[in-house]
Design brief:
Layout (H helix, E strand, L loop, with lengths): L2 E8 L3 H8 L2 H7 L6 E5 L10 E8 L2 E13 L3 E8 L4 E11 L2 E11 L3 H34 L1
Antiparallel strand pairs: 1-7, 2-3, 3-4, 4-5, 5-6, 6-7
Helix pairs in contact: 1-3, 2-3
Amino acid sequence: MPIIKHEIYIEAPSDVCFDLARNVQIHTLTTSKSKEKAIAGVTEGLLEKGDKVTWEAVHFGIKQSLTAKITAMDKPNYFTDIMVKGAFKSFTHKHEFIIQHQGTVMIDIFDYQSPFGILGSIADKLFLERYMKQFLANRASKLKRIAESHN
């Protein structure tokens, strides 16, 4: 079960970073490479604890949908979403926001389990873990640009 941790410093207040990270429209902008869009549940605005959203995206050339639920939230420090339906066997994605100097350290902790047992483990080693690291890093970089332009 891989656990991916990504940290990025953003020159913006934690409440700005927190709200941008849970904004459905901003999520769509920061995942444009995979053509991600909200198709069910909360499809615009800010996600709150208990909310569900179904995302449609193209990964590895295949259109997929994934439903996530916000299971924990402490504004503006962290929120957690879990997959309730989708391609993974399971995942938990923790989003943390730590005030540092004049800005915020945004931390993504993505704990997932691939489907298909040993075949999923092989896929993790061959390409999936690297793909997910890149996906999270790209999204964080785009969110950083947006947050710093609002500051």
